[in-house]
Design goal:
- The protein has two domains: 59 residues, Orthogonal Bundle (DNA polymerase, domain 1), CATH 1.10.150.530; 266 residues, TIM Barrel.
- It is an alpha/beta fold and 352 residues long.
- The N terminus and C terminus are likely disordered.
- It contains eleven helices and 14 strands.
């Protein structure tokens, strides 16, 4: 896929913290209070044109427009599933594209956002892993997926479970979640946001210390040696070290810890695996989300039967580990868990 070329070279205001907006105001010789005004226009009113910031003087708006732009970039294509799920293709500052998935469900509407172009974790059951790593998103790129989402007013939740490993891009992820939850920003409760990870320790430690958002760990096998076979990241980021770190946290309050577990037939769905999951997780205040495997080309893996998933759910719950089976959404448009990939031509996304 050829990189999309940006026509403008102006600096984007979208993705800036209040302190960064104060620096802009100072540089432009604007009153200090205009930083809060700009933040309100960006993150509350969500205008995509500096000219619309009507409580800034015309002089200041014209001066800003010389060097800055809001920077919101609309999706360049989308695909809609029969179940109502919509997958969007968003351009990034680097000229690449990433996918985001809007999932409506009754009164709830969730957006699954990406944090990297591709991924370097290399999970063998994931299409994004096959794409390889092509770069980190900026905080602006991450927020743009929300800012320019056509259904943004319907959103109730955001999950950082799209392309990439969030803790491998922790600076941008923390900056984006800070703006999402800050009083000057989107002013969301951190309980509306869940960030996933395979267990990248340094980034995970920072996230646990600096954020109050929910956490989801991609587990998929409780045995380190077996996990390594399907998740090469186990070599650098062991699940044992991850669990040890999680045990140092207090999960008894509102912050939620969950474990994602794709169930493969004959690979991780035995009673032995179930017993080990209970042993490892029963002392943590957490829940397990069982996920159906969505087949990808040229893979030896098969999804477990519905009966087996129900058995595993009931076994874990009966032994003190609250477990649910996640509904599969958007599989017909390659939008379900593990299927996101942008190593294809933009032409596959019809503009609507």
């Amino acid at each position: 896929m050829e990189k999309m070329k940006k026509e403008k070279t102006k600096t984007a205001l979208l993705g800036m913290t209040l302190e960064e907006l104060r620096q802009v105001a100072e540089q432009m010789e604007m009153p200090a209070f205009t930083a809060k005004q700009m933040a309100r226009w960006l993150y509350v009113s969500r205008v995509n044109d500096i000219g619309a910031m009507s409580n800034l003087s015309q002089k200041h708006r014209l001066a800003l427009q010389e060097s800055y732009e809001v920077g919101g970039m609309a999706p360049v294509g989308n695909q809609q599933s029969v179940d109502g799920t919509v997958k969007y293709l968003f351009p990034t500052e680097s000229g690449h594209c990433v996918e985001s998935v809007f999932i409506p469900e009754g009164e709830r509407a969730t957006l699954c956002v990406s944090t990297q172009v591709g991924c370097r974790m290399g999970c063998r059951f994931c299409m994004t892993g096959r794409q390889g790593f092509q770069g980190n998103l900026t905080a602006k790129d991450i927020l743009n997926q929300i800012f320019m989402l056509p259904e943004r007013e319907r959103l109730t939740n955001v999950v950082f479970m799209g392309q990439g490993e969030p803790m491998d891009n922790v600076d941008a992820v923390l900056k984006a979640t800070d703006i999402l939850t800050a009083d000057y920003g989107f002013a969301w409760s951190p309980r509306r946001i869940t960030v996933s990870s395979v267990g990248v320790r340094k980034g995970l430690a920072r996230f646990l210390q600096e954020s109050e958002c929910h956490l989801a760990i991609s587990l998929h096998n409780p045995f380190a040696e077996e996990r390594r076979e399907i998740m090469p990241a186990e070599n650098a980021f062991s699940i044992d070290e991850c669990l040890a770190l999680l045990h140092t946290q207090d999960w008894s309050h509102q912050r939620r810890l969950s474990f994602e577990y794709i169930v493969f037939a004959g690979l991780n769905d035995s009673q032995r695996h179930a017993r080990e999951l209970v042993r490892e997780l029963s002392q943590l205040h957490c829940r397990v989300n069982l996920i159906r495997f969505h087949t990808i080309p040229d893979t030896p893996f098969r999804g477990a039967s519905e009966e087996r998933m129900i058995w595993l759910r009931d076994y874990l719950t009966r032994h003190g580990v609250t477990t649910t089976i996640r509904a599969s959404r958007g599989e017909d448009i390659m939008a379900a868990c593990g299927l996101l990939n942008t190593a294809v031509a933009n032409g596959e996304y019809p503009l609507q």
